[in-house]
Amino acid sequence: MRNFSRDSIMIDTTDQTKTKLREATVRGTSFPHAVRFHVGFWVLLVLLLLAIILATGAGAVRIAPRTVFSILFNHSGMGHVSPTWLPSDEIIIFRIRLPRVLGAAFIGAALSVAGVLFQGLLRNPLADPYVIGASGGAALGSVLGLLLSVHIKVLGFGAVPTLAFLGALGTMILVYQLARVGGRTSIVTLLLAGFVVSVFLSCTMSFLLIVNDRLQLNTRIIYAWLLGGISVTHWSQVGAIGCVVLVGCALALALTKSLNALALGEECAEHLGISVERNKTAIIVLGSVLTAAAVSGGGLIGFVGLIVPHSLRLLFGPDHTRLLPLAALGGAVFLVMADLLSRVLMPPTELPVGILTAFCGAPAFLFLLQRSKREYRF
Amino acid sequence: MNAIQLSDVSFAYGTHRVLEKVSVQIAASERIALLGPNATGKSTLLKLMSGVLTPATGCVRIDGRDLRAFPRKELSRKVAVLPQQFVVPFAFTAREIVQLGRTPHLHFLRGARGTDLRAVERAMELTNTLQLASRIFNELSGGERQRVMIAMALAQNPEILLLDEPTQQLDITRQAEILDLITDLNLREKLTIVAAIHELNAAARYFHRVIVLHAGALVADGVPQEVLRTDLLREVYQGSVEVLQLGGVPVILPMPQVRFEGNGS
Q1: Are B93 and A317 within 8 A, CB to CB?
Q2: CATH architecture of A98-376
Q3: Confidence of residue B87 (pLDDT cuts 50, 70, 90)
Q4: Which residues of B touch A377 (CB under 8 A)?
Q5: Sequence-separated (6 or more) residues with CB below 8 Å from residue B53
Q6: How do the domains of chain B map onto residue ranges?
Q7: Which one of B76, B122, B157 has the shortest CB-CB distance to A272?
Q8: What is the ipTM, given to two decimal places?
């Protein structure tokens, strides 16, 4: 068997080509890109910690960021600072604030990573985690949860988030099955099926809302759910969402090479040795589970899965091996900050966080779009 | 042993039969042009060779091994494909595109290593694309893009390179550039080349063996001087064609059907 390049790389380098190679390595993009990635990663990680501390301190009872840091430091077991704060501060932080802030971080990461997965799979930078029907399914699930007034508790989640999770997941499985013809999944069919099923489900939901008198009383809850708002209040919920999100992100990292190859189209990916169907299934299932986890804890929060991957792609390039970890951190930072704003902008009213993500997301998105139009050329 | 061997291969999209009992043997380091009018199954034949499609009957062997028994990843270390259309939705740089050619060589958790970077470097050097490395792929010209794509295929470190219409939509100089590059890769790197091509004159000049498909069947196979004859081309292309000889190379001209009456004065 011939091994032409493997050998000739070593043998065939004359002085001239050696110089060329050296020049190219210096000029090449992979090195600066890698540095950029590492800087970006650490910056985002520090930003995430700062955002968590800031968000944990803010609220009706203001706790200084330094105090929050000291309290968390004491509990981390890494050292001890003598308390200068009220015991109630500690209770507020651990019982109320921190579960919510961490919930927001996990939900943001889940939405952002799901965005990267769906955009890569659908080869469309405008795809959203909700695009293949999750929103319709989740909304219907939550309405059913209210309508049936079942009192169940799954890992600290009530009927509404649980049924929203099942609704999102079930819808995406249905859409995927509908789009699957003869063992293959066409992307166009997937988008169409997702759209049609979404419309059907949201109409069913509207129908139920109008028909059911009992529900009329609860429309406020439904409304809040549809606009999005972090409803993580217990540590058990943080644990459940956190586990799903962390495992999901780890699995997504293993799919990044396939995502890169899939960006060139399915046939090209196959030429590059990727088992296309198996990888597509994995990406859809993973994206759906992440979206469903986010929906169960935060309702329908738009724009995170769109704006975060986009901005990061413009800053760090489209290579998924770098984009995915950055998107997880970036999504977490974004949603923690948005949730913080939603609580402090108009106290005591808590704005739905979905409104804020749209308010921040849309202009930022348009700004980036304006600045770098080349990303969106097809 | 043959690099590629097709025995009695038939293929149909649904009920539409595309290829009917095609048998071809291709030895290592051959340089072959696949000819034929539109929709005669040239692309399908290439897809059968690359394993993207599986024949309905018959069998395709690469290095004597049935493609059905070839693991996807292993196959893509042997066979690289230059597709007809290539749309990249994101702003990948040329170098990142070439690096994707290393996908079949990467461990699924590890990133690129020294050997990968060297293979990318060499592929870009062979295709004269190093100066394009940090440019955005989508912003390159047609000819540059084609060269980057060939570099990506070379980064796969293949023994066989399949090309689907490598010169379409390129001007005459760019066409020659790509064909020179392909020929060079065949002669110097001993790559086996199979290219589906529309340009009959390019096929006659650059390839040492041409295979003509017509209505899903193989109708001629041999050196260009013997295959590209007036009678055969008229029958296959259903039109009026004239073949001239220019220094031993056939030159094919389509003959106009309109009469230029009173023209030119």
Answers
A1: yes
A2: Orthogonal Bundle (1.10)
A3: confident
A4: 138-139
A5: B11, B44, B47
A6: 1-78+158-225, 85-157
A7: B76
A8: 0.85
